[in-house]
Amino acid sequence: MIRTLGFAALLCSGLGQGLAQGQGQAQGQTSAEAMTLLRKIYQATEKLSYTGTFVYQQGERTETSRITRLAGPGGEIEKVEVLDGSPREIVRTRDTVRCYLPDSQTVKVERRTDPRAFPAMLPQHVADLARNYTIMRGERVRIAGFECEAVVLTPKDELRYGYKLWADVNTGMLLKARTFDRKGETVEQFSFAQLAIGSVSRDRVKTRHMAQNWRIEDAAVAPADLGRSGWTLGSVLPGFRKVTEVTRRLGEARPVGQMVYSDGLAAVSVFIEPMSGRAETVRPGPSSLGAFQIYTREIANHIVTVVGEAPAASVQRFATAVEYRQP
Amino acid sequence: MKAKISELMDGEAGSQESAGPLDVLRSEGEARETWRRYHLIGDVMRDTRLISGGFSARVAAKLAAEPTVMAPSRVSPKRQTQRWQLLSAAASLAAVALVGWVAFGTQESEPQMAQVQPQVQPIAAQVPPPATANDYLYAHQGYSPRNSLQGVAPYVRMVSGEAGPQRR
């Protein structure tokens, strides 16, 4: 009996592996080891200090960036600097994200007002992922000098992408992450070329830009209840739940409402803004930018823009579900 | 009924609610056609390689018109033995197997499915991304679950073309 079970498990994992690479529909079963590894990755992201260089690949685009993270009792600070082209930087502290754009001499600032919206990935959240994804162990490979173990999250339906994550066997540090669609084709990929785990000096997480005279775009995020203004979603896609609902400023000053829905990995933002004051023409329909799918609609003199890290059909379904009723 | 069928397809109807539409689907011509059409729309939206509308009806007609070949041209001795074994096992079952085998053989020599051209156009054509798409992506990124998986790294996804797609 045990032997039969073992064989079945082997067969399942083999099958899942093949399909994860191929069509992206889960056939195997979530394994406890894979869940443990996934938890370890989330904990490592939370706890480790490191500095390294990674390559981001999406379609034709390949871009190298340096990332540095300092964890400590004073709260963590992270910085990413793009090494190709214009030296853009993003610095994230516990409560603020600053994005330095030297070409336009702009700093985008976003303060976190709603702690629920930025939750640490707790163990029960990892367990929740298993409802929508089959989580299985992958092969062992060496990446940037680290012995890595893979975990594959294959979606149980076509509403989300699949993910393959490679993590350092010792620390759980994520060395490579690949998003794949239902045909098994890569949507985007992050991969470290070089990495040093361990203490980092505080100077390395500071911006190198003297941005005193730069224009500041403050997102002015505030919690909101868009339902009270008449905006709701008729139905939410299976597995997704509302993460947050805010009002904010987009770009320099455009006020928008934003609702975020997620299943723990896939995420979709629904933006609602008044048509008046929009200079450019609005083109309703589906579009895409990089790894993101976008769907634009007009409802009741408002523009609804859905942006998602999810397949185009899912993003469109979110857009279609948006309803307005005079409050 | 159409709304119910749509719910059923999306997996939004409970088992209680599904019983009604499912029964109708089994019997009613129009409901069945709706079910088929909705799946076709879904396939188009998902960009699935398509077979044209009315495909199943045409296949049924072609199958009906197909002469029943009882002696297919080339059969390996091994397969022939298998067939005889089947025939001797249960006559009715063997007849079904034979017809199936013949149909399969015909399809192999004449790949009719590949010749059918898709006639349905995708419903929603791609449009250029909004001029301020990067602003949306940036606003979304703050809430991306990828942040708790990869820290600040996923932010590189939207800071490529600083001012948006037209600056690329």
What is the gist of this entry?
With 327 residues, chain A is of the alpha+beta class. Chain A is built from four helices and 21 strands. In chain B, helix 1 packs across helix 3 and helix 2 crosses helix 3.
Note down, in words, how this protein is organized.
The complex is a heterodimer of chains A (327) and B (168). With 327 residues, chain A is α+β, with helices and mostly antiparallel strands. Chain A folds into 2 domains: 2-205, outer membrane lipoprotein receptor (LolB), chain A; 221-324, Phosphorylase Kinase, domain 1 (2-Layer Sandwich), CATH 3.30.200.100. Chain A is built from 4 helices and 21 strands. Chain B has 168 residues and is mainly α. Chain B folds into 3 domains: 2-48, no CATH class; 66-115; 133-167, no CATH class. Chain B has 9 helices and no strands. The longest helix of chain B has 19 residues, at 91-109. Chain B is elongated, with a radius of gyration of 26 Å.
